[in-house]
C-alpha cells in the first residue's frame, strides 16, 4: 500500500544544458509507473526541468531549502520559491550537507516543518558513519536523528513524509549496505517513528535506501519489506542507468 519512490539526486552535477538534455533523455524512455519517480536537479535547473516534465508522471524535487519564506538570507532558497517552479519534494539533511555544510538536526527539523507548511514533501536523510557502524552505535545515532527531525510534527504530517536511510560509508563509494543491513535499519526507523507518531503514521511513512544504488542491486533492495524506494546519486546521472533502476524487476 505504500507507493514506492525512486528519486534521483543529481547533487552538484549538470549545468543547465546538460540538465535539460538528461531530462529529455529520461522523458524519452519507457519508465514503469509503479514507483513515483522524482528528479532533484541543482537549483538553477529546477524551473527548466520542471517545465519539461510538467506533462509527464515525473516529479520535481530540490536538494535543500531554507525555512523562511523570504528575507535577508543571501544565497538561500525558500519553500515558496521551490513551489513556484513546480517542486513537490525537497531533500533535507543529506549527509553531505550535514558533514560539509554544518547542517544540524534542529535546522533539519525547522526545514521539515516549513516544507510541510508549504505543501512540499520532505525527504529526510539519516545515516551513520563507518565508525558508528563498526562500533555498533548506529541505533542510537539514527534514533536521535529521526527524533530530532520530527519534533513538533503531527502524526498526520509524519504520515506524509519520506525518510531516507543513507549509510555515509555507502554513499558514492560503490559499497552498498547488504539488503539485510538496509532493511534492518529501515525497519528500525519505522519502529522509532511508531514510538513518536503512532502505528498508522509509521505504516504510512515511506522509507528509502540510498548509497550506491545501481541497476544490478536495486531489485534485491526493493524486495525487502521495509525498503519503500531508493535515493539514487551517481546512477541517476545516466539516463540508461536511472531508467534501469526505475524499471527494477519485482
Ligand atoms: P550514490 O549517492 O548513489 O552516488 O551513492 C546517493 C546519495 O547520496 O543520495
Key traits:
single chain; alpha/beta; 8-stranded parallel β-barrel; 12 helices; 42% helix; 15% strand; globular; binds 2-phosphoglycolic acid
Q: How does this structure look, described?
A:
The structure is a single chain. Helix 2 links the parallel strand 2 and strand 3 (59-62). Helix 1 (16-27) runs parallel beside helix 2 and helix 7 (138-149) crosses helix 9. This protein starts with a strand and ends with a helix. It has helices spanning 16-27, 46-53, 79-84, 95-100, 105-117, 130-134, 138-149, 155-160, 179-197, 199-204, 218-222, 239-246; strands at 5-9, 36-40, 59-62, 89-92, 121-126, 162-165, 206-210, 229-232. It has an 8-stranded parallel beta barrel, surrounded by 5 helices. The protein is of the alpha/beta class and 250 residues long. It binds 2-phosphoglycolic acid. 2-phosphoglycolic acid binds at residues 9, 166, 171-172, 210-213, 231-235.
Question: Stretches where pLDDT falls below 50 for ≥5 residues?
Answer: none
Spatial arrangement of strands, main beta sheet: 1-2-3-4-5-6-7-8
Instruction: Specify the number of helices.
Output: 12
**Biggest sheet statistics:** 8 strands, parallel, barrel
Number of strands: 8
Give the overall shape, derived from the CA principal axes.
globular
Ligand inventory reads:
2-phosphoglycolic acid
Secondary structure: helix percent: 40-55%
List the helices and strands and how they pair.
Blueprint: E1 5-9, H1 16-27, E2 36-40, H2 46-53, E3 59-62, H3 79-84, E4 89-92, H4 95-100, H5 105-117, E5 121-126, H6 130-134, H7 138-149, H8 155-160, E6 162-165, H9 179-197, H10 199-204, E7 206-210, H11 218-222, E8 229-232, H12 239-246
Parallel strand pairs: 1-2, 1-8, 2-3, 3-4, 4-5, 5-6, 6-7, 7-8
Bound molecules: 2-phosphoglycolic acid.
Amino acid at each position: 500500500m505504500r507507493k514506492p519512490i525512486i528519486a534521483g539526486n543529481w547533487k552538484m552535477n549538470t549545468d543547465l544544458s546538460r540538465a535539460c538534455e538528461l531530462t529529455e533523455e529520461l522523458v524519452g524512455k519507457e519508465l514503469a509507473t509503479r514507483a513515483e519517480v522524482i528528479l532533484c536537479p541543482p537549483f538553477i535547473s529546477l524551473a527548466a526541468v520542471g517545465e519539461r516534465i510538467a506533462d509527464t508522471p515525473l516529479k520535481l524535487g530540490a536538494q535543500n531549502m531554507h525555512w523562511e519564506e523570504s528575507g535577508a538570507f543571501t544565497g538561500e532558497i525558500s519553500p515558496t520559491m521551490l513551489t513556484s517552479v513546480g517542486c513537490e519534494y525537497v531533500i533535507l539533511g543529506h549527509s553531505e550537507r550535514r558533514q560539509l555544510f554544518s547542517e544540524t538536526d534542529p535546522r533539519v527539523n525547522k526545514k521539515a516543518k516549513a516544507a510541510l507548511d508549504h505543501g512540499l514533501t520532505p525527504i529526510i536523510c539519516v545515516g551513520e558513519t563507518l565508525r558508528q557502524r563498526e562500533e555498533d552505535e548506529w541505533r542510537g545515532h539514527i534514533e536521535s536523528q529521526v527524533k530530532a527531525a520530527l519534533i513538533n510534527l503531527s502524526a498526520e504530517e509524519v504520515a506524509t513524509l519520506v525518510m531516507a536511510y543513507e549509510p555515509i560509508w555507502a554513499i558514492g563509494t560503490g559499497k552498498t549496505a547488504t539488503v539485510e543491513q538496509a532493511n534492518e535499519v529501515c525497519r528500525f526507523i519505522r519502529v522509532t517513528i511508531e514510538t513518536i507518531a503512532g502505528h498508522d503514521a509509521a505504516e504510512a511513512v515511506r522509507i528509502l535506501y540510498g548509497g550506491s544504488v545501481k541497476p544490478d542491486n536495486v531489485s534485491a533492495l526493493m524486495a525487502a519489506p521495509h525498503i519503500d524506494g531508493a535515493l539514487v546519486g551517481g546512477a541517476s546521472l545516466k539516463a540508461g542507468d536511472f531508467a534501469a533502476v526505475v524499471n527494477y524487476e519485482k
